[in-house]
Each structure stands twice: as structure tokens, then as C-alpha cells.
Amino acid sequence: MAKAPSDALVFFGATGDLAYKKIFPALQSMARRGDLTFPVIGVAKSGWNTEQLIERARASVTAYGGLKEEAFKILASKLRYVDGDYADPATFTLLKSVLDQEGASRPTHYLAIPPSLFPSVIQRLAESGCHNKGRVVVEKPFGRDLASARALNEVVHSAFDESSIFRIDHYL
Q1: Residues 61-90, buried b or exposed e (16+ Cβ, 10 A)?
Q2: CA-to-CA distance for 109 and 147, rounded, in angstroms?
Q3: CA 107 to CA 114: how far, in whole Å?
Q4: What is the pLDDT along the chain (172 residues), one digit of tens a residue?
């Protein structure tokens, strides 16, 4: 049986380079095609708020692909921001609250963060219940070698079913 589609995108590393160069332009393209129908929740520790994230997204799409005003309005209306440390359970309590406010119960969690942070984020997602019925996208190399890849695989499987795990490297 096919899984229900995700009803939110949570992306960790929302203020970082990958988000700036790749994620925001892709989201604007989705909005332009009518495919951005769910909340997009950026998570980072930058001391920002949602308005600052929207301005970062505007600068991003302007620099990487061109600002499309109508599509950007849709993107901006979908953006939310959670500020906090990835090791702090309070960050994930706040994330869970935002997901609940948005009526999202099947989020996709996109880890656009350094690989060293994957285990902590995955553990906190599980502890907070944010992983329930969710998916995870692991961006960047999956481990440094076979042993570290296996260890990371164990951590990911502690919270997510294999059918809910997506491992990608956008440079391959």
C-alpha cells in the first residue's frame, strides 16, 4: 500500500548555504507549478524569526534563478521558522508545536546540515514524536566509511522505517 503524501517539509539548516543556493529556488519552482501546498518549516540556530527567513529566501531566489513575484508570495506564505539548537530538546518541542498548529502529521524532515549532526537531530525527532508517520531525507555523504555508514544507518533506523528514508547527495 502506498504511503500518504507528506503534509509538511521541515528542513534543518534553513539559514545555510545549501538552503540558499538550492532549496529556496526549488521551493519557488514548486510554488510556480502549483505544487507547494504544504507548510515549509525551516529550523536553524541563527536567532532569526520567520520574517528574516522570508527575506533570506527572497535574496536566494533573486540570486539563484530569478524572483518570480507570484510564486514567491506563495512560498513566503508557507514559510515558518523554528530557531534553536539541534541538541536541545526544547527546539524539537517547539517544532512539534508548529507542526501541530499547521495540522501536519506526516512531515518530511530534510537534513541539510553537517553529517556530524545527523544522529542528534534524528534522536531528538524520535524523542519529540516529530518522526511519527514522517520521512527523513539525509543530504550529503552517508558516513565517512563503511563502519560509520553502518552506525548512521542504525541511528536512522531507530526512528524511521527503511521505506521512509531517502539518502541523497546532490553532487552525484
Answers
A1: beeeeeeeeebbebbbebbbbbbbebeeee
A2: 24
A3: 21
A4: 677 899 999 999 999 999 999 999 999 999 999 999 999 999 999 999 999 999 999 999 999 989 999 999 999 999 999 999 999 999 999 999 999 999 999 999 999 998 889 999 999 999 999 999 999 999 767 778 889 889 999 999 999 999 999 988 655 4
Q: Residue holding cell 553532487?
A: 171
Kindly tell me the burial class for residue 52, based on how many C-beta atoms sit within 10 Å of its own C-beta (0-12, 13-18, 19 or more).
middle
Q: d(Cα 158, Cα 66) in Å, to the nearest integer?
A: 41
pTM for the full model? 0.93
